[in-house]
Write a structure and sequence with these properties.
Length: 323
């Protein structure tokens, strides 16, 4: 019987490996759910909608038409996003977390609504204007509440998770000997590197689904109404699917079948943007430095989080490239 919640702010990969040895699906008392740890089983839960229902902030702010250079505004938005994420990890069972999330959502609404109302009358080159133009073709009625809901999802999903990805990219560059030199020598491999880090250290470790009918998965029967959590991060290191899964292999094949962005009808709509942001950061950092190392005397990052996870904080120094 597992205890996944004991791994909050701790590296969970030993838990994933130990649990997989008992089978691809297991019951976890702390989560009150079946954990689908195997690749095939996790993907099955993600894909079968009829059975299982359910970017850094400056980039998202710029896309929405907000003032992405207002550091105080962005700091507030990041704090609100973190509060909402903490609530999502409680599955709505924590009243205090729910109240904090509602307050955070109200703060985000105060930022978004003035721009939404302005774009209703005067369009600009941003996503909010596009939502006003194209939304009525997708859904009726379409008004301020619908545009606001889409903006909140974009801000929530597109900023925090990508920040976790960027931290994990930096961590691999600091801890995997020779990877930075390989990418400097052949920048065309940066995209593959980003996807391999997404597989190895995907930001979102699990999703939440509820069985809509009795179903057998991985040799276990999941009853209607029971929760089933596809453990995407565990599936991405499942030896049956990925040989030598704990080692980074930039030339691994297949390259993009990992579950970092989910699978099936709820595949992440921002996957291309997240990949592009990750590649852009690596492509900007590496040519400007001859190497990276930890700052003397500073502590090493820990693999922290619960649903979203990343290595942090990083105290690293870049050696300037000779000119």
């Amino acid at each position: 019987m597992g205890d996944y919640r004991a791994y909050v702010d701790r590296d969970p990969y030993a838990f994933y490996s130990d649990s997989l040895e008992r089978g691809p699906v297991c019951w976890d008392e702390s989560m009150g759910a079946r954990l689908a740890l195997g690749y095939d089983e996790a993907r099955s839960v993600l894909v079968q909608e009829s059975v299982f229902g359910a970017v850094p902030s400056d980039v998202i702010a710029a896309l929405l038409g907000l003032d992405w250079q207002d550091e105080q505004l962005l700091a507030s938005c990041r704090a609100w996003n973190s509060t909402i994420f903490r609530w999502s990890e409680t599955f709505g069972a924590d009243e205090a977390a729910t109240n904090e999330a509602l307050a955070a959502a109200a703060g985000l609404d105060e930022v978004l609504l003035p721009v939404i109302r302005a774009r209703r009358e005067h369009r600009a080159d941003d996503l909010i204007s596009l939502l006003w133009d194209k939304g009525p073709d997708a859904l009726q009625p379409w008004g301020e509440a619908e545009v606001l809901a889409q903006c909140r999802v974009l801000f929530f999903a597109g900023s925090d998770t990508t920040a976790h990805l960027l931290r994990n990219l930096l961590h691999v560059l600091l801890t995997e000997p020779g990877v930075d030199d390989r990418l400097r020598a052949d920048p065309t491999q940066v995209g593959a590197f980003v996807d391999e880090v997404l597989r190895l250290y995907g930001p979102i470790h699990f999703r939440v689904r509820v069985a809509l009918t009795d179903v057998e998965l991985g040799g276990q029967v999941i009853r209607r109404g029971e929760r089933a959590h596809p453990m995407n991060a565990a599936a991405n290191q499942e030896p049956r699917h990925y040989p030598d899964p704990h080692r980074i292999q930039i030339d691994r094949s297949p390259l993009r079948d990992h579950l970092a962005f989910n699978a099936g009808p709820r595949f992440c709509v921002g996957a291309a943007l997240a990949r592009a942001e990750g590649a852009e950061v690596v492509e900007q950092v590496l040519p400007r430095s001859s190497g990276m190392d930890w700052v003397d005397g500073a502590g090493r990052p820990r693999f922290r989080g619960y649903m979203p996870r990343s290595f942090r904080p990083h105290f690293a120094a870049l050696a300037p490239r000779a000119t």
